[in-house]
Amino acid sequence: MEKDFSPLQKKLGIKFNNPELLENAFVHRSYLNEHPSFHLPQNERLEFLGDAVLELVVTEELYAKYPNPEGELTNWRAALVNSKMLSAVAGKIQFEDLLYLSRGEQKDTGKARQFILANTMEALIGAIYLDQGWDSAKKFIHEYIISELPNVLAKKLYMDPKSNFQEQAQEKTGITPSYKVMSESGPDHDKIFVVGIYLGKDLIATGEGSSKQEAQESAAQKGLEVQGWI
Amino acid sequence: MEKDFSPLQKKLGIKFNNPELLENAFVHRSYLNEHPSFHLPQNERLEFLGDAVLELVVTEELYAKYPNPEGELTNWRAALVNSKMLSAVAGKIQFEDLLYLSRGEQKDTGKARQFILANTMEALIGAIYLDQGWDSAKKFIHEYIISELPNVLAKKLYMDPKSNFQEQAQEKTGITPSYKVMSESGPDHDKIFVVGIYLGKDLIATGEGSSKQEAQESAAQKGLEVQGWI
Lengths: 230, 230
What we know:
- 2 copies of one chain form a homodimer.
- By secondary structure, the first copy, chain A, is mainly alpha-helical.
- Helix content of chain A is 59%, strand content 10%.
- Chain A has helices at residues 6-12, 19-24, 29-34, 44-65, 70-81, 83-93, 103-107, 111-132, 134-144, 149-154, 161-173, 212-226, and strands at residues 178-185, 192-199, 202-209.
- Chain A has a 3-stranded antiparallel sheet with strand order 1-2-3.
- In chain A, a hairpin with a 2-residue loop joins strand 2 (192-199) and strand 3.
- In chain A, helix 4 crosses helix 8 (111-132).
- The N and C termini of chain A lie far apart (43 Å).
């Protein structure tokens, strides 16, 4: 199966000197199990490189533009480069069809796909850096990733949902939220918890998870949505 | 207390355009507690920047020079940039006297000092990068850190001591090492374990630690030294 990388190059405004580098960024290791004689290796070495390029570009931008303490900048950076954000950016670029995946991985569209998309984003950054240099990689990262920073800051995406809900609840209502387990079901190895998040006696939202912590986080996330705090 | 940074600049072969940036790299936050009106902030923002510069320089070098899988390169990189290595490099540069530390931190010369030295190394890299640019930071990192790579590879410093001992034992003696707890003393919250590492029935070395795992690691480390495998 031949894939056409010209539309992607056009979209990114980058003409690769070595188009195989670009193609290489999209080769997941699962594909090589089924196609051992494929002409390109898996993309993990490019991902290793791209991850470090991404980190420095984002770090430099945060350092230069914000006087905040290092701890805050670290949290903001994490929110910009985590797999959730990178897979969302991959979704905007719409390069999913270009992935070289095994048949099994093609079917999986959950968390596993999210990680593959995020890793491919890093490999793509590595390929741009190698083929086009620092300035071009920096431009790409600014256009697609650092552009998300205002959104990260406005929605406090750098905070976990429980801390975010608590901070906003205290600020806006003066009440500290509390959590209650509403039900617990399933066998020991496959429990499902349902937890409610409360402000005083008011149930704001419920969340489900395979641990209490996970259910609390889900409840806090839904609570943020219900309250219009996100 | 005024400190003289000229000898350090001479040693590094770098004349800073803004010498306060260099000085800033040496200001530990503990010092500002005792000297709140000091003219420079703590070094943690520089450390945040320098850490990312260090990571990219090392990553790029490993990517370009070694065809190994990404997992191996990740381990090698970790061995080059961990606090043990960075504090050892700080020891070679001999900049310890330039640290701005609280009186309490001045007395502590154990693990806490090791972390402070390592973080100061990163802050120093951040200062060089800001003041002198990428090429100068890269040159510094090559001269003082990447130069340690042959040693890391020869002594397998990228492996934890237990894995390293096991691999070499199997290669050189055909025997898989085993561990035995030789004594356990002290109250629950402050236990001391002594563990022996054996090849067959031969006791090779013993190690101490506050957990079995820690004592095993210490025994393996001493075992590597006793056997001349490091």
